[in-house]
Each structure stands twice: as structure tokens, then as C-alpha cells.
Amino acid sequence: MTVQKSFSIFVIIVILSITGVLFWSIDASTFAMLKNADPKLLLCAAGLVVLGWMFDACKFMTLARAAGEKLSFMSTISVVWINYFGCAITPMQSGGGPFQIYLLYKDGVSVGKSVAITLVRTLQILFLLALVVPFSLLADPEMLRKYVYMRWYVCYVVIFIAFCAFLLVVSVIRPQWIKHWVNAILVWIKRVGILKSKYLLHAVRWVSREIDAYNTNIKLFTSTGKWWLMLSIILAVVHLIVYMSIMPCLIKAAGFNVNYIQCLLAESLLLFMLYFVPTPGASGAAEGGAVAVFGLFVPWSVAGVMVVTWRLLSEYTGVALGTFIVVRMLGWCGANKVLIAEHEAIENTEESEDEDK
């Protein structure tokens, strides 16, 4: 699927979601409640969005320093914005990585280091959210007793954390194991007909080469770059707190009292779940889930408007800026090439190996 089609699907789902949320929530009392909205706190919420971008950029810069690279703030802020675009057009928000890697490569960072930087950045967010999710559920024990599926979700979170931690440790200590497992998956993909036989050997060689590069660069984070890595973790925590503070700030701006910690815990559960939604940018589920979270703190008639405002500030502005960067720097055709870069890399590996022979 092309970038244009994916982006169009994202926009369509967002429009339908917003329309549905507003249609089912707005009534005669909505606008009366919103008349007392505090413009200063609304401005504060917008300021938190900008501050979040800045912390995210600084986090990228420190991760780059951990890998032995120096990045300027202006170039890194573009990496932050283009990530919003990549996440918006791909299922489970997985497409930000290729675009980030492209911009980092243009700034002189090798592909291997770029992969390591973007991977560590994503893992930091997931692990932090995953660590908070159990506390989110324990903060409201009635939820666990009332909804059986939430108990299974807690088990899923624990298994997810353990599995990811295991893979991360193995990828550094025993990269050969990862190669064997990936090769087994590639052979299975070939058997079911997804991967052509003539590309299997080249795919295996390319994966092996990328794992070696990843392993080498990941080790930089735990050796010469360990202090920068620790700083990036601190910045990741601060960035996440700033980002999640947008929601309680908006609730307060609308004139409602909110328990700050309780709001952050509920929001962390929503954000973690959105990473596993198969729609582009988790659209639809994000709006619907946010209504449920806002509904815990504000009347239902205001929840829909609050959701639209929250998504507009926290996500859609970033997507718009990321789209501008993609169109200006790549164009739609160039963006398509970035998403199929993996296939091109396999072909390039094949050509280089043939030349070596």
C-alpha cells in the first residue's frame, strides 16, 4: 500500500472517529459547560505539547551521543515530527522508524547506528508504559474484579515485558541465537509463499549483516555511551510525564477537578494499548479509548470535545508538521521509497556480494 493511500485511510478514520465521538457525546449542556474554559490553561496545554517535542528531541540527541554521534537540535526536531507522520500511516505505529532512520542517515549517522537509536528510543517508551500499566490497574482494583479480560491484560503486560527484555539481552549477549530464529522465520515465510526462493539467501545474509551492525552499535550504549544512555532514560521519563500532563491540563482548563496521578495512570493504560492497534496511527481506537478515559473525569457531554482537543494538540499537530517535512524533503514518491527501503537494501546486498565474487 502506498503512502498516499495509507495517509488517506488515516485521515478518513480520524474524520469518522471525530464525527462519531462528537455526535454521541454533545448535547445542550456541552457548550454551557465549555463557556468557563480557562484560556490560560489551554495555552499551557499547547505549551506542554511544544515542551514535549523539545524533550523528545533532546532524548534523540543523547541517544545519538551514546552511539558516538552528535546531532543538532534543529535537525533532531525534524526527526521527532517525521516520526508522527510515519506512525500515522502504519499499523501499530510502526512506520516512524524508517523515516527517522532516513533523516538520521542524511545527517551522517550510519544505518546501523540509526536502527539502534530508534529501537532503543521506542523500547524506552514501551518499557516505561508497560511498567506503569500494572499500577494503573491496581489503582482501581474494582476494574480487575469487574472485567475478567483486564486480568488477562495484566498477564499479557508481564509476559510482554519479560519477552522483550529477554530478546534485548539475547541480542547483545548471543546475537547468533537471534540470527537462527530470524532465519527460521524467513524459511517459514518462504514455505508459505510470501518470500520467493531466489530472495531467501540474500535476505538471510542481509539480516545477518544488520544484526551484526545492530549488535555492535547497541554495545556502545552499555560501554562508552552508558552515561548518555542513562541521561536519555531520565529525559524519556520527563518527556512521557510532560506528554501525559496535557490531558489533565485540558480537564482543568475546562473547569473540572482532576486527580493528576489517577489521570496519568488511566492515560498510560490507553497509550500502551494503542501501540498494538492495527489501524494506521491507532486512529479510531485512540479517539474511542480517549473518550472512555476522559469520561472518568468529566461529564459525558464534554468528553467528546475534550478528546478532539487532546488529539488535535498532542497528535494531529505533530502529524501535520511531519507531513510538511515529508512533502518538502521527499515528496510522496520519495516517502514510498523510504518504506520499501528494506527490499532495496536486500537487492543492494545481492549486487555487492556478486561484485565481491
Structure description:
The two termini are 36 Å apart. Helix 5 (96-106) runs antiparallel to helix 6 (111-138) and helix 14 runs antiparallel to helix 15 (300-329). The protein has helices spanning 3-25, 28-34, 39-66, 73-88, 96-106, 111-138, 141-146, 148-173, 175-191, 197-222, 226-244, 246-253, 260-274, 285-294, 300-329, 331-339, 341-356. It is an all-alpha fold. It contains 17 helices and no strands.
Summarize this, please?
By secondary structure, the chain is mostly helical.
Descriptive labels:
single chain, 357 residues, mainly alpha, 17 helices
Total beta strands: 0
- Beginning-to-end CA distance, first to last residue: 36 Å
Overall spatial form: globular
Poorly predicted segments: 345-357
SS summary, helix count: 17
Strand content: under 5%
How helical, in percent, are the residues?
Answer: over 70%
Elements, N to C (H/E):
HHHHHHHHHHHHHHHHH
What's the Cα radius of gyration? 22 Å
Q: How does the helix and strand content classify structurally?
A: mainly alpha
Give the integer mean of the pLDDT values: 81
Oligomer: single chain
Q: Major β-sheet, in short?
A: none
